[in-house]
Design brief:
mainly alpha, 379 residues
């Protein structure tokens, strides 16, 4: 787990450096913050021109946007471009593309590049964590199969039992969970390891398993039955937390770069003011606590539900139109919704079932793949 955490810290630094030090991104951000917001009267004029539905007025509306040296709210401007870039009239489509790339061409190019870089940086971490989860899930299944074999052979000397299964299991688990062996939480994987280890070390092949363990036959049978009937394992929570940690960090970085940094002046259009207020309260409390470090970005005080709510906001979905279509966005939100109760179980130390554990891997992997921009996606 420490290796994954270290890798995660390195990823954070790479992402921060790629964002802060990129001269074109810095230039675009500075220019964005210097611009005044468009006059509401101008926005009303543009809306009226669009409502008329004539080709001439649509082009005139686009010209007003083109000639305005100001910043329009994304929720106002981006839907216009999306609509007009698909207009039936060639002239409207051509003008929409011209104005759009004049205003946002450099922005889209650099921020798309930054977004792809961010997602790709997390790729190796997600792949490794997915492999770990698969291995842990397999270990759980193996522990239950071995427990059944042992329970059926309690009265027999170990020489009559096919012993290779014990060695294979021991080899599979070697050093993987040593740190957790003394934790007083029930784990089928660890319980089976605690039973198979003495069997392998035993030199007297005529002894029965209860004799080797120094326990009564009924006590060993009870322990094995608990393993066989178990639905989950607290080790699932440990591996699950690592995966969720990486996923949440990725989502927070995406929101920070695509929404918080770029839209500081109109942030309350993007994120519910009550959510922002809650984040500020948490950060202030942490800053005022002499035992804690409160020097984090505001987004780092968000809940998992906050992240989902931000992505659900249709105004925010427009900010990703160069990367994600609405179908992919809906899929991401659906997966986040499915993950929330699993994430809450992990956060409150309730053991995940094998089904939940496997679902966590599948959905987290789906979200990562959905976020990974398609090379030929044009918006």
């Amino acid at each position: 787990m420490d290796n994954n955490m270290t890798e995660g810290s390195d990823n954070e630094k790479k992402i921060d450096d790629s964002m802060k030090e990129h001269p074109d991104v810095k230039k675009l951000l500075e220019a964005s913050f210097k611009k005044d917001l468009a006059n509401p009267k101008l926005m009303e004029e543009i809306s009226e021109l669009i409502k008329s539905g004539t080709v001439e007025n649509k082009i005139l509306a686009l010209e007003k946007i083109e000639n305005c040296d100001c910043s329009f709210p994304a929720s106002f401007e981006f839907p216009i471009f999306r609509q007009f870039k698909a207009d039936p009239d060639d002239r409207v489509r051509s003008k929409a593309n011209e104005v759009y790339y004049k205003r946002y061409g450099p922005y889209i190019e650099e921020f798309t590049k930054s977004f792809k870089n961010m997602v790709n940086i997390y790729g190796n971490t997600f792949n490794q964590l997915a492999l770990d989860i698969s291995a842990t899930s397999i270990s759980f299944s193996h522990s239950q199969k071995i427990a059944k074999t042992i329970r059926e052979s309690l009265k027999h000397p170990i020489k009559s039992i096919y012993s290779n299964i014990f060695f294979d299991y021991e080899k599979e688990q070697k050093n993987r969970w040593v740190t957790f062996l003394k934790i007083p939480l029930f784990s089928p994987i660890l319980k089976t390891t605690q039973i198979t280890h003495p069997i392998i070390k035993n030199k007297d092949s005529y002894k029965t398993i209860p004799e080797i363990l120094g326990k009564s036959e009924s006590e060993v049978e009870r322990e094995l039955t608990e393993v066989i009937e178990a639905k989950g394992d607290f080790l699932f929570n440990i591996k699950g937390y690592e995966l969720l940690f990486a996923l949440e960090r990725l989502l927070r970085n995406i929101i920070h770069e695509r929404i918080c940094l770029v839209h500081q002046l109109t942030i309350t259009e993007r994120i519910d003011p009550n959510i922002i207020k809650r984040w500020k309260k948490r950060r202030t409390k942490e800053i005022n606590d002499c035992l804690l470090n409160g020097e984090y970005r505001l987004i780092d005080y968000s809940d998992f539900k906050d992240l989902k709510d931000i992505f659900e906001n249709e105004k925010n979905q427009e900010l990703f139109f160069d990367l994600l279509d609405k179908k992919r966005f809906r899929s991401i939100i659906s997966k986040l919704d499915e993950l929330e109760p699993i994430r809450n179980k992990i956060a409150h130390s309730r053991s995940l079932t094998k089904r939940e554990f496997n679902k966590l891997k599948i959905y987290a992997d789906d979200i990562y793949r959905l976020l990974k921009p398609k090379e030929n996606f044009k918006g």
